[in-house]
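Retro notes, structure queue

What went well: the backlog is down to a handful. What didn't: a couple of records were mislabeled last round, so from now on we paste the full input next to the output in the thread. Example, using DUF8175 domain-containing protein from Arthrobacter sulfonylureivorans:
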Amino acid sequence: MSQSTESTTESNPFTKPGFIIAAVLVVALLAAGIVIFLLPKGQSDAQPAPPAPGTGSTPAASPSASAAGSSVCGLPTSTETSLGAAPETKWELVGTMAAPTDPQIGPGKTDAQGIRSCFAHTPKGALYAAVNLWALGSDPSKERAIAEQLAAKGPGREAGMKAPLTQAPASSVKIQIAGFNVSYTANQAVVDLAFKADNGALASVRTTLLWQDGDWKGVVADNGAPLEEPRQVRDLSGFIPWSGA
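Corresponding output:
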């Protein structure tokens, strides 16, 4: 193989070893139903950095939401800004995915539709909110309720609520949380979650959350598209391993 051909192969993710397996995982992610948050809309391979608070299409936290930082259901608030170890937690099956639950972290509320909300104003609370959001999305019937109740206020939320319901592709591949990283400020968190499929494939997605109205809400772009796309990862290097299944 010529040097130019090797270079082209290396720069093209579609020709890298393991891509086909990883692509199956991405299909499973799309089938999970979290369309307004994580479904790829474009063709770019760029990996944008987490948005800074109050910039771009990320809606700013409302004064009432950020003033005291109180949880809408009375869960704790702390001054912690990092999470360097995997929390010990109880896991519950939500849809087809194991999700964490803790009486001091959340979810503090589960409504008649099964929507899990109200998480602590802490790095752990943001992590639990992100994982529960994914788990809820494994049930396509909750798509509209997720947009209405768990999306941050702004044009993206409105666009997501008006979007046609998704016809998710059928897939026998199941995915579970495998690890995480949390970047945290008082009113915004970026949770990078690693997923593992039952065929061994790995992928990750960054989910941006804002603290609004006493809870963590998922951020989408103004047109309802995601801020991030799923991306292949070779292993869990750089992630804190954490799983419930």
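Agreed that this is the format going forward. Reviewer comment attached to the example: The mean pLDDT is 74.
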